[in-house]
Amino acid sequence: MNRGALTAAAVAVVATPAAATIDVGGRTLTVVDMHLHPGDFDNMAPGGKAFITANLPPAFALYAPALLDRLSDPYAPHVGIAAQTSLAGVDHGVLYAVYTQHTTGYLTNEALEALLSDPRNAGGDERPWAWGFASINFDDWEGDLVGERLDALRSYFDHRPDLFKGIKLAHAHQQVAFTDAAYQGVYQLAAEVGVPVLLHTGFSPFPGAATDPAYYDPLGLEAVITTFDGTHGAGRVDFVLSHVGQGDARAVAHALDLAATHDNVWLELSALGRPLLVDLEGQPATSGEPQYPAVLAAIRQRGLVDRALFASDGPQYSGAVRSYLGRLVTGMQAAGYTTDEIAAVLAGNFERLFLAPRPP
Q: How many domains is the chain partitioned into structurally?
């Protein structure tokens, strides 16, 4: 498949002066991209800046700060995140706060609230164009600071439930093992306020990210998933495994197994365009094929389509959201997904998980 192209005849992005729409099998489908990163170059970690700059064409490296600032600004004309989603045919997005100051950089919950409260955050259906996931800083996680940060995190769901729909964690970036019980309070808070928790799983290419499976293989989450499945007295939390453990075939298999075993586990499909790095035996992988065809096929074969969620991990570069959406749709068609199933992955499952009324 030609990377970046919408290659299936049944898939098209139709541009209008205001926005684009995505057409699949003769139906115009709603799309929610639930993994988008606002930010600015100044708040990136030095290693993250170097990594991003090194991956730009040499002629553009000098302009990296200005390019990234505009691409990561939700409202920058023509090239910002809202413009990129419109170009792709994406109707709504989810913007993330992150406290990954040692690897990629940070965007505080306060900064995210300001972006979401901006009058320009308006969709075409009387809903916001973008919702948000709050996060939490795990540095110096001890003493009174723990309670203060948890209270601060709770405040966003108490006071702006119309905008904040979930919690975003990135253990590999935050140097926290999935099995570390010190962070159980975050999951308890999620159960109390009734929001899902999205967790980075799989390898991260950024310098400084933890590379031991204890930090990225979702198998380490199983005890927490079981505790918060709604049957053990701790309440229910829905866990969204971002990237489906990408990069390590063992982590991918564990993500699929967890979703098949626990109905409070969901699979978020971003960052699957790269090949595997580690095979099922823990050895360097030899295939250069992207991961998404096998992951999409496995999801359908195992009856997990109703808990799969489209996401791009954008904006990355201009056109990346559109390119990735095209690849995922053609991948789903190749795996035998019906148009109804594609519609569920692109938006229906998100709306059912994140936009349904919260339990009391």
A: 1
